[in-house]
Amino acid sequence: MTGIDFNEVATAPAREVAGALGVNAQFETADLSIYRPTKPFDVVVTIGVLMCTNDCFAAVRRVCAEFMRPGGHVFIGLYHLYGRKPFLDHFARLRAAGATEAEMMAEYRRLHPLDDETHLRSWFRDQVLHPHETQNTLAEMLPILNETGMTLLSTSINQFGPVDDIDAVLRLEPRFEKMGEQRLAEGRYFPGFFVFLARKR
Description:
This protein is an alpha/beta fold. It has two domains: 1-30, no CATH class; 43-200, no CATH class. The chain has helices at residues 8-21, 56-66, 81-96, 101-111, 117-129, 138-147, 166-170, 175-185; strands spanning 2-5, 26-29, 41-47, 68-79, 150-155, 193-200. The chain has a four-stranded mixed beta sheet with strand order 3-4-6-5. Strands 1-2 form a two-stranded parallel sheet. Helix 1 (8-21) links the parallel strand 1 (2-5) and strand 2. The chain is globular and about 50 Å long. It starts with a strand and ends with a strand.
């Protein structure tokens, strides 16, 4: 197993944990946009990462085109354009109305209660104060999968059901905005996230 992160703050403790657990893994501090794998991978998992790169489309394309062996699988998780909108709009309205950082923190705590205060503040900064992300759709990802020789196998968009009729799956995407609005009305955190699994042809 190979783990890649841009920051040694992440890879250093990962090495320590792997060593303590006796896991055969290596961790590299590398920029994904220029990282060159020494051999193609059987499985690549990237959850909540590529949407935070400078070019999400280029990052997905590169992983699918250059990291995968034929028959290999990629599992990717991204913020969803429709599902994420109610959450981001909610805090944008609070900010526009003059809410202080403390008031927004209290609102975030209400929506996403976490027991660990440090964890909570970290999430609040990432989600509300300094989001560096894109929001995407499966419809946007499909051309990239096709051009890089990937076949979509499964997605959370249709609750991991069959993808025999891709148009039917894509018609479900706008419904995620209503879902986000509903969760917000219920006082619940909804990240507006989706994942998909694809195989290299």
